[in-house]
Design brief:
233 residues; binds ligand LZUJQKHR; binds NADPH dihydro-nicotinamide-adenine-dinucleotide phosphate; 11 strands; Dihydrodipicolinate Reductase, domain 2; 2 domains; Rossmann fold; alpha/beta
Amino acid sequence: MKIGLFGYGKMGKMIEQIAQDRGHTVVARVDVDTTDIPFENMHVAIDFSTPDAAFGNITSCFEHKVPVISGTTGWLDQFGQAVAQCETHQSAFIYASNFSLGVNVFFELNAYLAKIMKGLDQYKVSMEEIHHTQKLDAPSGTAITLAEGIIGNTNYADWKLDEDGEHIVPITSKREGKVPGTHTILYKSPVDDIEIKHTAHNREGFALGAVIAAEWIQGKTGIFSMKDVLNLT
Ligand SMILES: NC(=O)C1=CN([C@@H]2O[C@H](COP(=O)(O)OP(=O)(O)OC[C@H]3O[C@@H](n4cnc5c(N)ncnc54)[C@H](OP(=O)(O)O)[C@@H]3O)[C@@H](O)[C@H]2O)C=CC1
Ligand SMILES: O=C(O)C1=N[C@H](C(=O)O)C[C@H](O)C1
């Protein structure tokens, strides 16, 4: 498989290493200054760039009928437009706030726990995410997906960063050292706590998931998710 990497930072470099180990070839490493992008030579584009750059990168790929795997977070106000562009150009698209197998299992666990907790009014939910100090967006994309999993399965109506309320999922974002990504969900009552937590030890799980998604999307047209790729419930 010939891969175009959009964003050649921490994730782009790790994806390159894993893709090469799996027998693939990186044909482009696109950064902010890159001109003459060889779209015609790519089987797939993998975008781990920046919140400002992601939408432009993704839609350029669709215009050239290159399928896109995007893990960039912090640009989702434009997600609907990206989906429309993908459909117009009959391309293929997977966005995931987190590509790791472990976090995708954690998403399922979170939804299951939320269903159980619905109506148990003595418990109040809250969430904490911790990432490295270079991270540009807060809360993390993963935290937003987790909050949506709670909201979709309970009477909580919205999430807020550093703000609480009766039907609010409050999210606290911490930025510390080189932490790859830690997410904790807490249900607290006056008598006890129920807590679930995912801790990434490094970035390899994210990168491997993105390469597996790129392999999976070959020959497909449409909008998919990691649930499709991993065949989760
Ligand atoms: N979904 C998932 O599983 C995961 C998602 N992420 C997300 O992926 C994104 C990237 O993370 P990470 O690699 O750690 O960040 P980095 O900052 O290490 O890398 C981002 C790279 O994108 C480059 N860039 C800037 N503008 C453009 C542009 N127009 N086109 C292409 N590249 C550009 C940056 O260059 P420069 O430094 O010169 O600006 C930088 O090299 C973030 O949004 C992060 O939240 C991260 C891990 C897992
Ligand atoms: O920026 C990161 O590093 C990460 N970003 C993603 C997010 O915002 O959820 C995924 C992972 O937690 C690492």
